[in-house]
Task: inverse folding
């Protein structure tokens, strides 16, 4: 990694319960760690819930007075969380000077706008998907309801606030230009990345892998399909279970290891109803530090996410681990996997998932070849070291333009 002579003071705004072991939290974490390795000062303002991490300065809001253990999601409670986060970031900004404000997600960009203007520094917006589309995916917003248009207008307004918007995919950049009329020159694509030293095929010695499989109750004599991420309908969890049912009915010898949260009891009930409790093992939440070893147990990885607007960073972890990867065919997944993806069609089809999983399960040579080439692709296009250098370059350009 090239070391730059500049040392920037960066205020990151993370409107979430950072750190939790999933999704956009990983991007925030790896950006902050990479910037710290280059000698930059990073302060992360976030909600009061979450886990502190060594080496990172994290400033948290006060708890909500009505329920201190409330874990935020898509609900009206988030308005209160964001109000507290706005107050916390303003207090930090009144005490300290920063060179750049980096707002994650739309709420982070909106809060960051006022802080950046107070200090006269550029605002960088880390765009991770459409706000309105995400709320629809989470069944919090009715696309035919009266609030949809006003939410879309708010999203459009936020999209025009930053000095520079970073998107995690080319599709995100197109969305900003076409749906929200953002200026092309103010949009930069910085795809999701992966730490190749952390996620690798040999993360576990063979004997430890056998021991861990036995401890999980996973058969050691058949291919293992792994999933690691949030469990939710929009993530395709029910489709994964339905595909497992189809494969069991066909007599395909394999096993599914489903790693993640929340709602594990609900999905375990679904496996009982589908008659696949002996075909699927749930682990619950897996800490990020343990994710490489758990993924290294697998022979095939699956990413059945059906959202068309959000990224799917777990795919990069799969690739770096050398796992052939099954996913639905869409623009974001193709950005990650290219011609090396094993694509299920049509979108949302458990039959499509089952078909391509079976193909891989029955062809170990193809699995090995795809896994090796996907690791090479991750190293060539998606390493965090190069990504952090690009991020610093974006900061530098925004700061120079602001002056």
Result:
């Amino acid at each position: 990694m090239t070391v730059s002579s500049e040392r920037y003071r960066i205020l990151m705004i993370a409107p979430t319960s950072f750190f939790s072991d999933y999704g956009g939290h990983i991007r925030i974490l790896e950006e902050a760690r990479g910037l710290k390795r280059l000698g930059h000062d990073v302060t992360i303002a976030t909600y009061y819930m979450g886990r502190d991490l060594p080496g990172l300065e994290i400033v948290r809001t006060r708890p909500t007075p009505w329920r201190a253990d409330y874990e935020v999601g898509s609900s009206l409670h988030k308005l209160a969380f964001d109000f507290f986060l706005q107050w916390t970031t303003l207090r930090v900004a009144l005490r300290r000077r920063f060179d750049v404000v980096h707002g994650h997600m739309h709420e982070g960009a909106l809060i960051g706008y006022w802080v950046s203007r107070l200090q006269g520094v550029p605002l960088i917006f880390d765009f991770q998907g459409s706000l309105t589309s995400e709320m629809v995916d989470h069944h919090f917003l009715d696309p035919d309801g009266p609030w949809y248009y006003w939410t879309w207008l708010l999203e459009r307004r936020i999209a025009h606030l930053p000095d520079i918007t970073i998107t995690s995919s080319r599709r995100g950049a197109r969305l900003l230009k076409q749906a929200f009329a953002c200026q092309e020159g103010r949009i930069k694509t910085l795809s999701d990345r992966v730490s190749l030293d952390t996620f690798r095929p040999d993360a576990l010695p063979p004997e430890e892998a056998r021991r861990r499989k036995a401890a999980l109750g996973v058969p050691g004599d058949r291919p293992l399909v792994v999933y690691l991420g949030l469990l939710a309908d929009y993530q395709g969890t029910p489709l994964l279970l339905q595909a497992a049912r189809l494969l069991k009915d066909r007599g395909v010898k394999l096993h599914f290891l489903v790693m993640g949260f929340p709602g594990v009891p609900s999905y375990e009930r679904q496996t009982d109803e589908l008659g696949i409790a002996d075909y699927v093992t749930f682990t619950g939440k897996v800490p990020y530090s343990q994710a490489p070893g758990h993924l290294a147990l697998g022979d095939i990885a699956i990413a059945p996410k059906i959202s068309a607007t959000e990224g799917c960073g777990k795919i990069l972890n799969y690739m770096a681990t050398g796992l052939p990867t099954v996913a639905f065919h869409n623009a974001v997944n193709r950005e990650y996997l290219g011609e090396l993806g094993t694509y299920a069609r049509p979108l949302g089809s458990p039959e499509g998932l089952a078909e391509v999983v079976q193909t891989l399960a029955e062809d170990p040579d193809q699995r090995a070849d795809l896994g090796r080439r996907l690791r090479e692709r991750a190293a060539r296009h998606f390493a965090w070291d190069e990504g952090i250098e690009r991020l610093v370059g974006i900061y530098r350009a925004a700061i120079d333009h602001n002056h």
User: Anything to note?
Assistant: Residues 31 and 247 are 39 Å apart (CA to CA).
